[in-house]
């Protein structure tokens, strides 16, 4: 019995010694969090640089002093081998664009926020004070739409490694005339051994 207890204790100690302890990481650090797949750091780097480019673009200057263009976030499609949420890229850009003081983002025309429409239906409710219900002809239409895609291309190298390239491509279209006023592209390239997977 004593021998059995000793073996169990030794096994538990061995398992405990091999466990990795949980610790915080700097998710924006590209070097220490390098993986074959797209990481938070990759999204943040691409989003920040494209948002900075948008903010200083001459065509994105509002004609009115302190005026802000209203943006509608259209489709950003995922053409990679990974199941990624493209909102991660867009959200990082939105935060930076809003904080720049040059842009506003409408969520009234997408599935993201249905409250703008739903709250208008309260005008028929006897429970709600009607003077507090938001009326018609008050929601602002967007000036621009932001759309794009994230693509992945893999290539085998002569030494057996795999080169993985991720392309972040975005366009800002003027809704009034349909012209692209800004386009941006960022490429994230990685080299990994042929056995690594990127999804």
UniProtKB/TrEMBL annotation:
Residues 1-27 form the signal peptide. It comes from the Bacteria. Pfam families: LpoB (PF13036). Keywords: Signal. The keyword Signal applies. InterPro entries: LpoB (IPR014094). This is Penicillin-binding protein activator LpoB. It comes from Shewanella algidipiscicola.
């Amino acid at each position: 019995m004593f021998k059995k207890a000793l073996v169990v204790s030794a096994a538990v100690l061995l398992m405990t010694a091999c466990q990795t302890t949980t610790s915080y990481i700097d998710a924006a650090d590209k070097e220490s969090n390098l993986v074959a797949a797209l990481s938070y750091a990759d999204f943040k780097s691409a989003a920040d640089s494209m948002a900075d480019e948008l903010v200083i673009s001459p065509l994105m200057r509002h004609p009115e002093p302190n005026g802000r263009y209203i943006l509608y976030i259209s489709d950003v499609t995922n053409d990679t081998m990974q199941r990624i949420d493209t909102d991660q890229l867009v959200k990082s850009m939105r935060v930076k664009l809003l904080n720049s003081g040059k842009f506003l983002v409408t969520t009234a025309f997408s599935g993201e926020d249905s409250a703008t429409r739903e709250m208008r239906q309260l005008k028929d409710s006897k429970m709600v004070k009607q003077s507090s219900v938001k009326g018609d002809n008050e929601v602002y239409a967007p000036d621009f739409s932001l759309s794009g895609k994230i693509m992945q291309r893999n290539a085998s190298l002569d030494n057996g490694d795999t080169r993985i390239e991720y392309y972040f491509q975005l366009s800002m279209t003027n809704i009034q005339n349909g012209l692209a006023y800004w386009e941006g592209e960022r490429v994230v390239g990685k080299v990994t051994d042929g056995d690594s997977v990127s999804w």
